[in-house]
Write a structure and sequence with these properties.
With about 500 residues, this protein is α/β, with parallel strands linked by helices. It contains 19 helices and 14 strands. The protein has 3 domains: about 190 residues, Lambda Exonuclease, Chain A (Alpha-Beta Complex), CATH 3.90.320; about 45 residues, no CATH class; about 210 residues, Nucleotidyltransferase, domain 5 (2-Layer Sandwich), CATH 3.30.420.10. Strands 1, 2, 3, 4, 5, 6 and 7 form a 7-stranded mixed beta sheet that branches. Strands 11-10-9-12-13 form a 5-stranded mixed beta sheet, with helices on both faces. It is globular and about 75 Å long.
Length: about 500
C-alpha cells in the first residue's frame, strides 16, 4: 500500500482505535459525522478565532489548501517577525504534519499554546501537545513552555468584545515532556497499521472515548444484521450497569426474559407492559389533573449556551440564555390560544423574554411544564438578573406543575422503550403530532438553528427558514403537553379546537 502522510489528528485517531485511522484513510466513504460532532467543530473554530484576538498583531498562517506553502509561510514569518505571535504555524517532520494554534515569542523561545473549547484539560490534550512539541523540536524551534488554553467557566463577560480572562492557561510541561520519547513509536506503529489489512477490532469503550467515532455504523453492521431483541435490557429504567452485565453473562439480552428478582417495581411494570403489548394508564393521573383549575398554561423554553459569551453578565457553558418560549393557554377544557416569544436579532433576549412571559402568564392558574427543574432554574436566573421583575417571576415558579413525574408514575406504553421523555411519550398518545417532519426537531437543533440565524454570514432566506422551524418546534412542545393532559383526563377534542 502507498505511504500516507500523517497529522496530529490522524495520530489521535490511531491512538483512539487503529481501525479508525485505517478506515479514515482507505474508506472515508463509510464516515458518518454526527450533528453533535459538527457542532463541536464549529464551536472549536469560534473559540480559536477569539484566542487569536487576545494576541494583538499576530501573524496568521493561512494556506489551508496548500500545506507546503503553509510550511514555507511559517518559516518566513519566524524569520521576518521574530517578535510577533504566530497562529496556525505549520511544521512537518518525517511525514508528520502539525499546526500550532498559537506560538508566542519569549526570550527563551516560543510559548506553545494549544487552544481547546473544553472546560478542562483532558488526557488526549496532553497527547496532542506531545505530538506537536516533538515535531517543533525536530524543526529546531525552541519551546519555552507548553500550555493548554481551555475555557474558564468562571469567566463572566462584561461586554464590549473584551474576552481577556476567557481562557485558563495550564502549563503542561511536566506531563508532556515524558511523552516526547513515545511520539516516534506512535508514528511508526500508525504507519504499520496503514501498511496492513483492516484491523480486526471489536466494538468497545474506545468507540466513544475520547470522541464519538464516525465509523460506528460501519463497525456495527454485523451486529445490526443479527436479530436484536425488540426489548433490550437498556429499556429497564435506571437498571444498574453491574446488573445488566451480570444478566448478559448469563446469556440474557431480552428484557422480557429477566427474572423478577432482578427487577424493582418500575422495571417489573415495564416488563409486564412490554410482554402484554398493551399500554397502561392509571386513573390517578387524571384525578390529580382534574383538581387543577382554569386557565391553564403550558410553557416551554428554548435556551442557548455559548462557549464564547455573546452578552454581558453571561459565562461560558454555565449561562443558559432563554431566547424563545411557547405557551398554549387553555381558558376552559378544549379551548386554546397560543402565545410565543422568539428573539433572533442577536441582542440579549433575557429582559424581553422575562417581561413578555410575565404578561402572558398572568398571576393565576397552573403552569404545566415537562421537567420542572429546567424551567424553574431559568426563571430563577431571570429573577436574580432583574430584581424589579423578581416577585412576578418567582410567582410564576410557584404555580408550576411538572407533568413528567405524573407521566412516569401513571403511564407506560411498550413503544416508549423505557423513556418518559416527551418525544417518547407523544407518539403513543398523539401520533398525528410528529417531530420528525420538522426543520428543527430537538433541543440541539434549536440551539444550532439559533447560532446559524444570528451568524452574520447566514443568508436571509435561510434565516427565515430556521426561524419558522423554531416557531414550529417550540409550538409543538407545548401542544404536546396539552395533548398529554387531555389524554390523562380522557378528553377527546375536536380537531378544530387545537391551535
Amino acid at each position: 500500500m502507498a505511504s500516507h502522510g500523517l497529522s496530529k489528528s490522524r495520530i489521535a485517531a490511531w491512538r483512539q482505535c487503529p481501525k479508525r485511522l485505517w478506515l479514515q484513510i482507505y474508506h472515508p466513504e463509510y464516515m458518518e459525522t454526527s450533528a453533535s460532532t459538527e457542532r463541536s467543530f464549529r464551536i472549536g473554530y469560534e473559540v480559536g478565532e477569539v484566542a487569536q484576538g487576545l494576541f494583538p498583531n499576530g501573524v496568521l498562517i493561512e494556506d489551508n489548501d496548500n500545506l507546503s506553502a503553509a510550511i514555507a509561510s511559517t518559516k518566513q514569518a519566524i524569520h521576518a517577525h521574530p517578535d510577533l505571535p504566530i497562529f496556525e504555524a505549520t511544521f512537518q517532520h518525517d511525514g508528520l504534519l502539525v499546526r500550532s494554534d498559537v506560538l508566542v515569542p519569549t526570550p527563551n523561545g516560543y510559548r506553545m499554546i494549544e487552544v481547546k473549547s473544553s472546560a478542562s484539560v483532558k488526557p488526549y490534550h496532553v497527547d496532542d501537545c506531545a505530538i506537536q512539541a516533538w515535531v517543533l523540536q525536530q524543526n529546531n524551534i525552541a519551546i519555552s513552555s507548553i500550555e493548554l488554553a481551555h475555557i474558564d467557566t468562571e469567566f463572566e463577560y462584561q461586554g464590549n468584545g473584551n474576552y481577556d480572562g476567557l481562557f485558563h492557561h495550564e502549563c503542561l510541561d511536566d506531563a508532556v515532556v515524558p511523552l516526547l520519547k513515545f511520539v516516534p513509536n506512535w508514528l511508526t506503529e500508525a504507519r504499520s497499521t496503514l501498511s496492513g489489512a483492516e484491523p480486526n477490532i471489536e466494538i468497545g469503550a474506545q468507540c466513544n472515548d475520547p470522541f464519538e467515532c464516525p465509523f460506528m455504523a460501519y463497525c456495527s453492521r454485523e451486529i445490526a444484521a443479527k436479530k436484536q431483541p425488540t426489548f433490550p435490557l437498556d429499556i429497564m429504567y435506571r437498571m444498574q450497569v453491574s446488573i445488566k452485565d451480570e444478566l448478559r453473562e448469563k446469556g440474557i439480552e431480552d428484557a422480557l426474559q429477566v427474572p423478577a428478582e432482578y427487577l424493582n417495581k418500575m422495571q417489573q411494570w415495564i416488563q409486564r407492559v412490554s410482554q402484554t403489548g398493551e399500554a397502561e394508564l392509571l386513573p390517578q393521573a387524571g384525578q390529580v389533573l382534574s383538581n387543577l383549575r382554569y386557565p391553564r398554561y403550558y410553557l416551554d423554553f428554548e435556551t442557548i449556551t455559548l462557549a464564547v459569551p455573546r452578552w454581558a453578565k453571561t459565562s461560558p457553558y454555565r449561562t443558559q440564555v432563554p431566547f424563545q418560549w411557547s405557551c398554549h393557554i387553555e381558558t376552559k377544557q378544549g379551548e386554546l390560544q397560543h402565545e410565543m416569544f422568539l428573539s433572533v436579532s442577536g441582542e440579549d433576549p433575557r429582559r424581553a423574554c422575562a417581561e413578555s412571559m410575565i404578561a402572558a402568564l398572568g398571576d393565576d392558574g397552573p403552569i404545566f411544564v415537562y421537567y420542572q427543574s429546567f424551567e424553574k432554574s431559568r426563571i430563577s436566573e431571570l429573577a436574580k438578573l432583574f430584581p424589579d421583575l423578581s416577585e412576578a417571576l418567582l410567582g410564576i415558579n410557584n404555580r408550576i406543575v411538572d407533568l413528567l413525574p405524573i407521566a412516569r408514575a401513571n403511564y407506560y406504553h411498550p413503544d416508549m422503550k423505557g423513556s418518559w421523555s416527551i418525544k417518547a411519550v407523544l407518539p403513543t398518545i398523539a401520533p398525528d403530532l410528529d417531530y420528525m417532519q420538522l426543520e428543527v426537531g430537538n433541543g440541539g437543533d434549536a440551539q444550532e438553528a439559533y447560532r446559524e440565524i444570528v451568524h452574520p454570514d447566514t443568508p436571509d432566506a435561510r434565516k427565515q427558514t430556521l426561524t419558522e422551524g423554531l416557531r414550529e418546534y417550540c409550538t409543538l412542545d407545548t401542544l404536546a403537553m396539552v395533548r398529554l393532559v387531555w389524554f390523562f383526563e380522557g378528553f377527546e377534542p375536536l380537531a378544530s379546537q387545537e391551535n
